[in-house]
Structures are given as structure tokens and as C-alpha cells.
Amino acid sequence: MIPIIRKQNMPSGAIFSLLLALTIHQTLTADVPPTVVTPETSSPPASPATPGPPERGSYNVTNATDAVCLLARMGLQLKISFISSSSGKTVQEVLNLHPNLVKFSGSCDPDSATLILTEDNITLTFSFSLNSTSNKYHLSGLELSAALPDMTKRIVFRNTSLNYMVGTLGHSYMCQKEKTLSITQDFSLNTFQLQVQPFGVNGDFGAAEECELDEDDMLIPIIVGAALAVLVLIVILAYLIGRNRSHAGYQTI
After folding, report:
1. For strand 172-175 and strand 208-210, is the pairing parallel, antiparallel, or unpaired?
2. Which residues face 105 on adjacent strands?
3. Which residues partner with 159 through β-bridges?
4. Which residue has the higher pLDDT, 8 or 169?
5. 29-33, 49-53, 95-99, 158-162 — which is least confidently predicted?
6. Residue 102: closest CA among 133, 125, 68
7. Which one of 56, 174, 219, 252 is least enclosed by Cβ atoms within 10 Å?
């Protein structure tokens, strides 16, 4: 006898549970995106914002008889590179001097003069020299002593062989434009609206001798004006020549 195998029907409840489980599995698999691990990156530290143009200050030095022997009006901006005590790396700091916080002093001699500006832990010393033969003066030296919060110790930048701000005795040197004075590899000084007279002061600034930057600004409108004048002259000459030719074309009957 061949045994008869009877099919056993799966209960409808079990079928419903199986379908429900498959549906939930597919839904979860479709909705949940794969997890992507993004490697952590360290962003570079933000560089300090550069300040705008500095405020213009007025400074003077008096001699033993309390007469003014040096006059200076200028805005000053310092650009310094140094090793940061917090990061151990070389950083650059740009600082403006604030005239209302600056204390000034100095000295005057027949052929040399100094102007010393001090604000908090910053001291800036200008040294001027006069050539008595040519009656020409110039900025011959500049020294900066600074102790900023992020410095490991006080630093000093010095250069005694400069040749900036060249002027004539009894006259002032003027440079209204921003000008950068390179002092050392790690220190430069930006001047704004500068006028200085370290010798031959007679109560106030003498006649100003302008720097090359200011002279170039004055030269441009002069060149443009001259070009326009030449153009007008050419038009007038062309008109006159054309008029004379038209008259010469008529014959007397």
C-alpha cells in the first residue's frame, strides 16, 4: 500500500503575520539610509582681522627752552611677525596706534632728533639725521619694542640705516597716501596722512615737500588737462585750415 500524504494548510493567521513581517522589513530597509562615517578634519585657526586705517595723531618735541623743535602728524600702523606662545608658530599681528592713548617725548640736537611714542607695552622710536652740508634731513633709524600678550618675551626690532622721509631744512615732509616703510624682515610700518618736520621748526610746519606717491596723484590730472588742451587746439586749427581752404576755392568774376 502506498501511504497517502495529506497536505496541511497553513493557518490564515500565520500567513498574515508572515506577510506583515516581510512588509515591515522592506519598509525599514528602504527608509533607513546607510550610515556614512565622515572623517574628522581640523579647520585652520582664523587669522586676526586687519584693522582699518589708523587715526591721525599730532606729536611734538620741545627743546631745553621749551620751544617746539620737532612736529609730526600721522596715523601709524604696525605689522609684526613673531612666534606665538600659545601655538608655537609664527604669526603676524597688525596693530594701530591710538593717539588718545599715546604718550610722546623726544629730544633735539643740531644734527639729530628723536621722537618716542609709547602706548601700553609698545614703544616706537624715530631717529632723524640732518646733513649740515646739503641741509637735507631724513629718517635714519627706527626701533620698536613690544610685549604683546601672545609673545613669549619682549621683542625689539631695530634698523639704524634707513633713508626715509627725506626733506629740506626749514621745510616739512608730507605723504598723504598710505606708505609702507620696511624696517626689518619681521617688522614694517604703515604711515597715513603723514607730515613731519624734525629740524628748522618756526612755530608751525614749513612749506611741504610731497612724497612721490602724492606727486604722482597730482601729475595725472595735469597730464589729462594738457591732453585735453592739445586736443582742443587741434580741433581749432583744423577748423581754421578748413575755413581758409573753402574761401580759397571761390574765384572772383
Report:
1. parallel
2. 116
3. 142
4. 169
5. 29-33
6. 125
7. 252
Confidence of residue 218 (pLDDT cuts 50, 70, 90): very low
Cell numbers at 111, concatenated: 644734527
Q: Phi/psi at 237 (nearest 5 deg)?
A: -65, -40
Strand partners, 127: 114, 141
Task: Note the pLDDT tens digit of each residue in 54-98.
Answer: 999 999 999 999 999 999 999 999 999 999 999 999 999 999 999
DSSP bridge pairs for 209: 173
The pLDDT-based confidence of 157 (bands split at 50, 70, 90) is very high
Q: Name the residue with higher pLDDT: 95 or 23.
A: 95
Full set of structural domains in the chain with CATH: 57-214 (2.40.160.110)
| Beta carbons of 71 and 172 less than 8 angstroms apart | yes
What residues form DSSP beta bridges with 72? 59, 196
Evaluate whether 119 touches 100 at the Cβ level (below 8 Å). no
Q: Please provide the DSSP assignment of the chain as one string.
A: -PPPPPPPPPPHHHHHHHHHHHHHHHHHHHHSPPP--PPP-PPPPPPPPPP-PPPPEEEEEE-TTS-EEEEEEEEEEEEEEEEBTTTSSEEEEEEE--TTT-EEEEEE-SSEEEEEEEETTEEEEEEEEEETTTTEEEEEEEEEEE--TTBSS-EEEEES---EEEEETTSEEEE-S-EEEEEETTEEEEEEEEEEE-S--BSB--SEEE-HHHHHHHHHHHHHHHHHHHHHHHHHHHHHHHHHHHHHT----
